[in-house]
Write a structure and sequence with these properties.
Mean pLDDT: 87
Number of helices: 4
Strand content: under 5%
Order of helices and strands: HHHH
Radius of gyration: 15 Å
Structural class: mainly alpha
Length: 98
């Protein structure tokens, strides 16, 4: 079994997730009052990303769509992912997690 291929750091993964969430909200018609910017949406997305990563046995840089799925996944699905993460070695050449 091979380990997951990571092409970015965990922090870069979180940043990409946050920017995708903010952009998606805008694309779907989010309208904010003139005195607010997107920081509250970005803060909530950052919190969701950290919550998802805390559910994993080891930090791993996930693409935004997988990070969102990990946040929403039921515990049974995460057990499978965590078993895989525990038993698979890191891939040589992957970007190391901080």
């Amino acid at each position: 079994m091979r380990g997951p291929i990571e092409t970015m750091t965990v922090e870069e993964s979180i940043d990409l997730f946050v920017s995708d969430e903010v952009e998606t909200a805008a694309e779907y018609g989010m309208r904010l009052p003139y005195f607010l910017d997107t920081e509250p949406i970005a803060a909530r997305a950052r919190s969701q990303a950290h919550e998802a990563l805390e559910r994993l046995d080891r930090p791993i840089a996930l693409p935004p769509e997988i990070l969102a799925a990990a946040h929403a996944a039921p515990p049974t699905h995460l057990r499978h992912l965590n078993t895989y993460l525990r038993t698979s070695p890191p891939i040589a050449g992957s970007v190391p997690s901080p």
